Amino acid sequence: MHLMRYLLRRLVLSVFVVLGVTLLVFVVAQVVPSDPAALYAGPRPTAEQIETARKVLALDAPLHERFFSFAARMATGEFGVSYKTRRLIADDLSVFLPATLELAVFSTVLALLIGVPAGVLTAAGRGGLLDRLGSLGSIAAVAMPTFFLAMLLQAFFAQWLGILPLSGRLSKEFAVLAPLPSATGFNLVDSLLAGRPAAFFDTLSHLVLPALTLASYPAGVAMRLTRSAMIEILQRRHIVAARALGLSGSRILFGHALPNAIGPALTVVGLSFAYALTGAVLVEIIFAWPGLGRYVSEAILSKDFPVIAAATLVVTICYVAMNLLIDLAQAIFDPRVAL
Question: Which InterPro entries match (predicted)?
Answer without folding.
Answer: BPD_transp_1_N, MetI-like, MetI-like_sf
